[in-house]
């Protein structure tokens, strides 16, 4: 019985690590990080082959299947957590402000962020649209600042693949 549980735990661990590598590999591909994508891909393939070999060595052992499935699911979450903490890349924050656009832009600039202002017309009249591209590691910090400066602002954030020129608060 101990051997069965140990093999299930080994499979769980291998699959968890492999899927963590897989999640990070995909994110590195999206961000154009070729070397890291290659390294994560190699590691993913090695752990996959090893885990699958353990499962196929005893197809009648349901604990191995359970370890494989649970490792897969856990690896996805761990990969997402790691990637979020690494915060590699850039984010473009768009702010739609019906009343405090100028003040919000000035407040962000005072904190060292570059902001582009655009005048626009919304459902209820004139609004300011502000664009601010930042390193992802500053995303929550700048969103907190925006919320403090303009609690009614509509905020969206999207990942940016290519960044060329401009002013960066590093």
Describe this structure in words.
With 170 residues, the protein is of the alpha+beta class. It has two domains: 2-86; 90-160, 2-Layer Sandwich (Alpha-Beta Plaits), CATH 3.30.70.120. Helices cover 58% and strands 19% of the residues. The chain contains five helices and four strands. The chain has helices spanning 2-30, 34-56, 62-86, 101-110, 139-149; strands spanning 90-97, 116-122, 125-135, 154-160. Strands 2-3-1-4 form a four-stranded antiparallel beta sheet, with helices on one face. Strand 2 (116-122) and strand 3 form a beta hairpin. The radius of gyration is 23 Å and the shape is elongated. The N and C termini lie far apart (55 Å). 27% of the residues are buried.
Please outline what is shown here.
The protein has 170 residues and is an alpha+beta fold. Helices cover 58% and strands 19% of the residues. It has five helices and four strands; from the N terminus they run αααβαββαβ.
Features:
alpha+beta; 5 helices; 2 domains; 170 residues; Alpha-Beta Plaits
Tally of structural domains = 2
Number of helical stretches of at least 4 residues = 5
Query: Into which percentage range does the β-strand content fall?
Result: 15-25%
Sheet/helix structural class: alpha+beta
Distance between the termini: 55 Å
The percent range for helix content is 55-70%
Radius of gyration, in Å, reads 23 Å
Globular, elongated, flat, extended or rod-shaped: what is the shape? elongated
Average pLDDT, rounded to a whole number, is 89
Low-confidence stretches: none
Major sheet details: 4 strands, antiparallel
One letter per element, helices H and strands E, the order comes to HHHEHEEHE
Strand order of the largest sheet: 2-3-1-4
For the secondary structure, the number of strands is: 4
């Amino acid at each position: 019985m101990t051997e069965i549980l140990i093999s299930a735990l080994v499979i769980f661990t291998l699959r968890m690590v492999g899927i963590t590598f897989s999640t990070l590999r995909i994110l590195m591909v999206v961000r154009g990080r070729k070397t890291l994508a290659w390294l994560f891909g190699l590691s993913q393939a090695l752990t996959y082959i090893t885990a699958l070999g353990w499962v196929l060595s005893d197809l009648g052992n349901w604990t191995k299947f359970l370890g494989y499935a649970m490792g897969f699911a856990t690896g996805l979450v761990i990969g997402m957590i790691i990637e979020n903490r690494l915060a590699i890349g850039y984010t473009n924050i768009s702010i739609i402000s019906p009343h405090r656009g100028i003040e919000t832009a000035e407040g962000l600039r005072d904190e060292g962020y570059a902001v582009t202002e655009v005048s626009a017309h919304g459902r209820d009249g004139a609004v300011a649209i502000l664009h601010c591209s930042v390193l992802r590691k500053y995303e929550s910090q700048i969103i907190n600042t925006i919320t403090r400066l303009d609690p009614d602002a509509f905020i969206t954030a999207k990942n940016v693949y290519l960044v060329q020129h401009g002013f960066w608060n590093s």
